[in-house]
Amino acid sequence: MGGTDVTDGWDWRQPGGTPGPAGGPSPGAPPVGSPHGAGGTTASPWWSDALADPWRDPNAPAAVVVPVAPGGGVEPEPVSDPDAPNRPRLRQVVLVSLITALLAGSLGSALTYAFLRGSGATTVLGARPADAPALAQRKPESLAGVAERVLPSVVTVRVASLGGISEGSGFIVSADGHVVTNDHVVAGGTGKATVVFNDGSTAPATVVGQDPESDIAVIKVSRGGLKPVEFGDSDALAVGDPVLAMGSPLSLANTVTAGIVSALDRTMQAGEPGGPTRYYAAIQTDAAVNHGNSGGPLVDAAGRVVGVNSTIKSLVADGQEAGNIGLAFAIPINQAKRVTQDIIGTGKARRTVIGAQVGGLGTAAGAGVRLNAVEPSGPAAAAGLKTGDVVLRLDGHPLSEPTDLVALVRKYAPGSVVTVEYRRGSSRQNASVTLAADAK
């Protein structure tokens, strides 16, 4: 069978033994007539040294014979070209995946670095940053900075009495060991107390003096190296100012709570049954205050003491344990400081009076308080006030209950001049009253 075209070493045949297209050898093909073939077909090898190839089997057929399918046709085996341009190679797929993963990792690292750098957190796991001490510091004007400065001056006060151990708070007001606390913390004790400092150390203390009506007491410890607090000006406070309450609520020493000044000159009348009645125009705050905070400092945003935490409001019935509901009251530091100085200087405090006794309300509820009696030689009489007059305002503060007049008068120091607006009959008048100290 002649005229066979040789292509790439394959002898191609039509199904059924029909030779391929007739014609001579393709241009450049070697000459035909080689004695080696298969199936009686003469085929010329496409490489010139085929007969001399030591690895070639001379008896091997020179053509691949494709078996005929039962139906008479040839069913080619499905094949695919690994070098086809539209099909990626396995190596390419792996390479693209690797590059994509590297790019994604680099992008994630860059974003993480940018976030940590922007937030100031540059800590690497397993390593301590060089600027760690600086990161731990707080600005002096921050709440944490204020607490750090003031807490070493805050103490816990424990007093033994027949009823057990009374515990409250206090703060150091002088380098020689004077500590301010509430009178109701030391009341009923033996005159001795134990002071627990910020670092946990303790020292014995003695009661220097106390004023039940203002609820201020002073005790003293014998210890050097004490850091006194800085006093602020309670008259300069405004509603909304931030404050911190410090002390040992529920025996939890070194506790700091934050809030604002909720109200000013909130007139209070407090006291236990059978005990003294306490009056003061308090600073109201929503900073959390509980039992044990009594006597601790109320501090402004500059770290200055502006009040002495004293009482709380509660919804519980008598005899039950009261807790914080966001209504706490502190004695203004201007008043507390004055009382403290009196106690340290003389052993007792002066009480500011107006020289009149108050009884019922004015003719209409909330329309002032009536003077039941006026002392002939007292400050009110000297200013022209008489029995029966209805005091409407004291230095601009409206009065609605007798407690209001007493508490507001106690806020001022003896010798202070206040403006009193009062009603006599149907006319309103003003008078300047110079307050005085009680004769006691």
From TrEMBL:
GO terms for biological process: proteolysis. GO terms for molecular function: peptidase activity. It comes from the Bacteria. The keyword Transmembrane applies. Residues 359-424 form the PDZ domain. Residues 1-87 are annotated as: Disordered. The chain crosses the membrane at residues 93-116. PROSITE patterns: PDZ (PS50106). It holds the Pfam family PDZ_2. The keyword Hydrolase applies. Keywords: Hydrolase, Membrane, Protease, Transmembrane, Transmembrane helix. Residues 22-33 have a biased composition (Pro residues). Residues 60-69 have a biased composition (Low complexity). It is an enzyme of class 3 (hydrolase). Its EC number is 3.4.21.-. PANTHER family: SERINE PROTEASE FAMILY S1C HTRA-RELATED, SERINE PROTEASE HTRA2, MITOCHONDRIAL. Belongs to the peptidase S1C family. This is S1C family serine protease. It comes from Micromonospora mangrovi.
